[in-house]
Amino acid sequence: MSTGKRLVVLLCALGSILCPVSAEDIDFWSDYPPEELTEALISRMTDEELFAQILMFGWAGQEPSELLNRWVLERGLGSVKLFGWNTDNTMQVARSVTALQTKAETRRFKIPLFVATDQEGGIIRHVKGDTSNTPGNLAIGASGYPMDAWYSGYYIGRELKALGINMNFAPTIDLYSSLDSSVIGPRSFGDNPEAAGVLGALFAAGTQAAGVIPTAKHFPGHGDTGVDSHGRLPAINVDRETFLNREVTPFRYVINEGIAAIMSGHLSFPRILPDGEPASLSKTMLTGFLRGELGFQGLIITDDMRMNGAIVYTGNLSSAYRMAIEAGNDIIISSTTAALNEALWQQNLALMRASPEFRARVTDAARRVLYAKLVYFKSENSVPVFPDMEKIPSLVPDREGEPFFLNLACRSITLAKQGKAFPYRSAPGERVLLAGQFPAFFDAGSSRYPAASVFRFVSGAADTSSRLAQAAAASDTVILCVADEESAALARQLQNSGKTLVVISVTSPVPAFNLDRADTVLYAYSTSPYSLEAAFGVLAGEFVPRGVLPITR
To answer: Which of 13, 356, 383, 453 has the most CB within a 10 Å radius?
Structure first.
């Protein structure tokens, strides 16, 4: 390179650092520092573009609807979310992401989409198809190995990255404080605040190492309630000392480790917040406490605004959106795509024009989102905007992750009760019955006990009890899968049958807590094939279980 050319390059580089952005034809990919480019783009955006940038919509069906496509193409929608009802075909997921990102690229500023999902591991796995069905958080808590949290986030993240999904609504760091907590349950790492904080921070670090943005949830804590915020607003009646020392502790850990995003929960804390307002709609909780006292600097993202926990308090969706924005949320989620002229769009745009304060808050949220995108997408470890379709079959499921998830499952299996049938090796001529709901249960069981009979049942079937009693009568030993209260009732029935009963508990161990008259009880914590393979391996005496129950009975 000649001296003259070197001088030109040097002057151009200095200019991009020292001079404000003045070019009119800039877009997201223009070569300026993120702070300057953020301000330049924000100053050029219309009210519609600013507001659309802080919205995230999901869609139903295998492919994005025409309505969602129009939101991206005509409105400049900022983010999209994949829910569990449209993700059975892994390749179609990647094609949908590609189609949406292609439309976003045709907009004048070429701002890419945040593409999010809930891939927590365990029972919450919204992107299905070929992705790994992992043991989940409660199994990580039972293993007691911090590395299990990091690698779970890492391998789950690598699969999402291959599909073009750049944001994961995980880790769940809610505590399993209430044993009635059906909505959280095994999604939690356990009931210990410090352990949940450490494991959550490591899961997030592993996710980030894979190139995906982690999101801790559900602030400030959904664990101490049996009420599901999808149906109504849960009230968590704890005092301030308990709130600070228990619920908030895991969030302090992830904030201290620089978590990029936190999801606000539709949760009422009547002894902390006045009038029972949800934390997700509370300026006191989000702007005052989360940002002010805890010092969180990342993105605040609402839980789904279509949930009754948000709408019931405000009376309508438009007001819920307004309150969520005013409270300090930066991205507002709707599980379904809003109509183009729905009230949440029209009324909040009108408020932007009428209220300088509201417009400033929307602009601040859009600024945070845009800056986060610039820093993320221009980093060396971001998810590519467009997934490489040819590589997906070799990357999903993650082949390196498969032995890890099996080892994690083995480390997590907990021996809750050891009876005469442990380890269990069937005698010649002994009649064994495998009874359960999940194919993986029978796959793992039949490989150890190939002569066993099989009894399959489904939840809610009226004649299950009588049919199981008949099948058990022709057996000597019954190995029963307990996943919920219904199957726990079947176990209690069999305790009185005179048969040897072995219980393998999956998902939450709580339904199996009172099965003391069973011969042997194992906690496996999930319905993952890895967990069931590990549970039968323990039962057959292939290795000694080391897992420790991560909740208090």
So the answer is: 383
Place of tokens 């009876």: 419
What is the model's pLDDT at position 75? 96
How would you label 263-284 residue by residue, b for 16+ Cβ within 10 Å and e otherwise? bbbbbbbeebbeeebbbbbbeb
Nearest Cα residue to 190 out of 122, 257, 241: 122
Residues near 364 by beta carbon (within 8 Å), at least 6 away in sequence: none
- Closest to 468 in 3D by CA, of 442, 437, 445, 446: 437
CA-based radius of gyration for the chain: 26
Give the whole-angstrom CA distance, residue 498 versus residue 492: 12
Give the DSSP letter of residue 278.
B
For residue 243, is pLDDT > 70? yes
Judge if the upstream peptide bond of residue 146 is cis by omega within 30 degrees of 0: no
The kind and range of the H/E element at 138 are helix 137-143
Cis peptide before 218 (omega within 30 of 0): yes
Burial class from Cβ neighbours inside 10 Å (0-12, 13-18, 19+) for residue 552 reads exposed
Contacts of 234 (CB under 8 A, 6+ apart): 222, 225, 227, 228, 266, 267, 268, 309
Please give the pLDDT value at position 20.
Answer: 63
Pick the range with the lowest mean pLDDT from 316-320, 530-534, 538-542. 316-320
The residue behind tokens 């890492």 is: 154
Question: Which contiguous run of DSSP H or E holds residue 405?
Answer: helix 401-412
Q: What is the DSSP letter of 480?
A: E
Burial class (CB in 10 A: 0-12, 13-18, 19+), 290: buried
Q: Where are the beta strands (DSSP E) in 414-533?
A: 414-417, 432-436, 453-456, 477-482, 500-505, 520-523
Q: Work out the burial of residue 39: count CB atoms within 10 Å of its CB; fewer than 13 is exposed, 13-18 middle, 19 or more buried.
A: middle
Residue 330 near residue 51 (C-beta atoms within 8 A): no
How is residue 75 written in tokens? 């409105």
Between CA 421 and CA 518 the distance in angstroms is: 10
The domains located in the chain, with CATH, are 46-395 (3.20.20.300), 413-539 (3.40.50.1700)
| Distance in angstroms (rounded) separating the CA atoms of residues 501 and 341 | 60
**Least confident segment among 97-101, 208-212, 335-339, 505-509:** 335-339
Would you say the C-alpha torsion 281, 287, 289, 291 has a positive or negative sign? Answer: positive
Q: How far is CA 193 from CA 295, 477, 507, 551, in A?
A: 19, 40, 20, 11
